[in-house]
């Protein structure tokens, strides 16, 4: 414990006093230390200008201690010192203590926020642009094959590359690690031409053998990989030469190139175990350091599309606070100068929704009960009451397909349905992601349902909790959201097949219906037919109230005025490899 922390403890006890009469033994008792240590701490306080001390000789006489720093000043200095030492988690834990005033908490968190963002650092002849970024949940791992959370996928897209990539502007699949490809008439044989000279982060050069190794390892793995279904149709993988490889499919698949654009099909070097928590890729950033508190990504000098402009990305795992992870590149204190920044509205390409756990017994197994809940959740009213980032009421995962105009809600009808359900007043346990908007939505729904006698208890959960199946299946319902990436077709297919998503909560008969819908969707020759087939699947899930859509969200962020190259990914974050700073 540092001497400043001891000072804070003493000053907290005497917050309203400028001077106190106290003995060294009393200081020792308050600080829970020995008399000798109290004497040392007092001398350090005097040296650093924290206190003035006027001693009094004689037994029973007390000395005069004058506080030279207010409690708030000392707390602020302590947070600044922790941040300088990169003890960001400790700084946040200190700042959010419940016995601090709201204004002090706000100042302390603002100080911590200022440690984040893109900073230009010059040391001798070396210049570095470093992005400092808070992270409010643990990275489950740095392995692209097991990722299911959007923020993880965004970060790993900077570390790993795939054979092809989706272009959000042209809405087409374009070359990436493969510079071109061919496909036969029935879409059963896909041949890819690998770029020459692409390097992995360990210096090795990419060849067809690496591609074959990656896919065969995924296919043959006995481990439960969330999106292994992407590879189910592959019958054989043949190497034509060092830079040409062919995939032979059991059945023709028009959207196979979409599959190969997914982060889950990233290419790793031959010989690497796909089960490792940290893997090597070919992306613009490489993993420089990782532990349970901090992740550091470093620019990869030899990326085939050019070195990124940022030199380093540092991410800290922080406790839950009101720190928005998006604030790492935005102006926190723009004030009157806000017009100097660039403001972007980031629309959530998906929807928030409530899903009932059909694998758990309870009142929610009754279709009448679920329909009663659906009657009470008027999303239009939710948007009006809560506002904020809630852009519009939702009736679909896809914002452009939502149509709330003809939706009507009736408390009387809800009561009638609830009576038919034979609900007996038991508590409905609702899990909700521990984000401010999600918890507000969940509590709003709990309040509305209380009007017809349904008791709901809201349980905040972490993002990382989605990996714990037993824990997630212990709830009657879950309130969460689905944020689609730019490639809507691929996002829809992942939604229907990802074992960590909606599938986890559906009954066997519902899963059968979902799989039938998936097979119908994948055979559609055109995008519009694809969407219509997906909407039919949605309607099946909505008709008995298993899924209740709530809102589409958006968020406005004003970026640093000197920040250039801002391109927002489908995950709602800037693409790190394109960011750069201009001199102001």
TrEMBL record:
Q: Which InterPro entries match?
A: SBP_5, SBP_5_dom, SgrR_HTH_N
Location of the Solute-binding protein family domain: 172-477
State any single GO MF term.
Answer: DNA binding
Q: Give all residue intervals belonging to the Transcriptional regulator SgrR N-terminal HTH domain.
A: 4-108
Which of UniProt's keywords are assigned here?
DNA-binding
Q: Is the keyword ATP-binding in the record? A: no
One Pfam family, short name: SBP_bac_5
GO BP annotations listed: peptide transport
Q: Does the keyword DNA-binding apply?
A: yes
Could you tell me the superkingdom of the organism this chain comes from?
Bacteria
Coiled-coil intervals, chain numbering: none
| PANTHER family in alphabetical order | HTH-TYPE TRANSCRIPTIONAL REGULATOR SGRR, PERIPLASMIC BINDING COMPONENT OF ABC TRANSPORTER
- How is this protein named in the record? HTH-type transcriptional regulator SgrR
Report which gene this protein is encoded by.
sgrR
């Amino acid at each position: 414990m540092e001497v400043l922390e001891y000072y804070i403890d003493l000053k907290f006890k005497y917050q309203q006093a400028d001077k106190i009469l106290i003995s060294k033994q009393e200081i020792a008792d308050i600080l829970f230390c020995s008399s000798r240590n109290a004497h040392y701490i007092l001398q350090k306080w005097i040296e650093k200008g924290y206190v003035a001390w006027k001693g009094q000789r004689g037994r029973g006489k007390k000395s005069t201690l004058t506080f030279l720093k207010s409690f708030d000043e000392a707390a602020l200095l302590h947070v600044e010192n922790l941040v300088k030492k990169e003890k960001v988690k400790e700084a946040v834990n200190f700042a959010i203590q419940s016995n601090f005033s709201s204004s002090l908490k706000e100042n302390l968190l603002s100080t911590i926020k200022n440690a984040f963002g893109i900073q230009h650092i010059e040391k001798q002849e070396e210049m570095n642009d470093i992005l400092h970024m808070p992270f409010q949940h643990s990275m489950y791992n740095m392995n692209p094959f097991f990722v299911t959370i959007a923020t993880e996928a965004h970060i790993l897209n900077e570390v790993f590359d795939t054979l092809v990539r989706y272009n959000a502007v042209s809405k087409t699949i374009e070359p990436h690690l493969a510079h071109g490809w061919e496909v036969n008439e029935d879409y059963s044989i896909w041949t890819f031409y690998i770029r020459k000279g692409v390097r992995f982060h360990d210096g090795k050069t990419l060849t067809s053998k690496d591609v074959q190794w990656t896919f065969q390892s995924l296919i043959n793995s006995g481990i439960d990989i969330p999106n292994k279904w992407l590879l189910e149709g592959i019958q054989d993988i043949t190497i034509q030469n060092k830079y040409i490889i062919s995939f032979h499919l059991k059945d023709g698949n028009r959207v196979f190139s979409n599959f190969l654009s997914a982060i889950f099909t990233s290419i790793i070097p031959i010989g690497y175990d796909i089960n490792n928590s940290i893997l090597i890729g070919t992306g613009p950033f490489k993993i420089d350091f990782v532990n349970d508190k901090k992740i550091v990504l470093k620019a990869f000098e030899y990326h085939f599309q050019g070195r990124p402009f940022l030199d380093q990305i540092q991410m800290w795992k922080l406790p839950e606070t009101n720190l928005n992870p998006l604030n790492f590149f935005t102006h926190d204190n723009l004030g009157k100068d806000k017009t100097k920044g660039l403001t972007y509205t980031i629309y959530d390409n998906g929807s928030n929704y409530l899903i009932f756990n059909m694998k758990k017994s309870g009142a929610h197994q009754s279709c009448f009960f679920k329909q009663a809940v659906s009657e009470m959740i008027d999303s239009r009213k939710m948007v009006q009451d809560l506002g904020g980032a809630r852009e519009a009421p939702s009736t679909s995962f896809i914002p452009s397909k939502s149509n709330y105009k003809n939706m009507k809600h009736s408390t009387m009808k809800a009561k009638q349905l609830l009576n038919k359900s034979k609900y007996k007043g038991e508590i409905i346990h609702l899990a909700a992601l521990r984000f401010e908007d999600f918890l507000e939505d969940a509590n709003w729904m709990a309040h509305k349902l209380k009007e017809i006698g349904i008791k709901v208890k809201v349980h905040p959960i972490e993002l990382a909790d989605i990996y714990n199946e037993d824990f997630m299946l212990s709830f009657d319902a879950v309130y969460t959201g689905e944020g689609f990436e730019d490639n809507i077709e691929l996002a829809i297919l992942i939604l229907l097949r990802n074992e960590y998503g909606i599938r986890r909560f559906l009954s066997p008969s519902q899963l059968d219906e979902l799989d039938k819908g998936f097979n119908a969707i994948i055979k559609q020759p055109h995008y519009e037919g694809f969407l219509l087939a997906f909407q039919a699947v949605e309607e099946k899930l909505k008709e008995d109230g298993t899924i209740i859509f709530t809102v589409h969200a958006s968020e406005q962020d004003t970026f640093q005025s000197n920040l250039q190259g801002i391109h927002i990914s489908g995950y709602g974050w800037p693409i790190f490899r394109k960011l750069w700073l201009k001199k102001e």
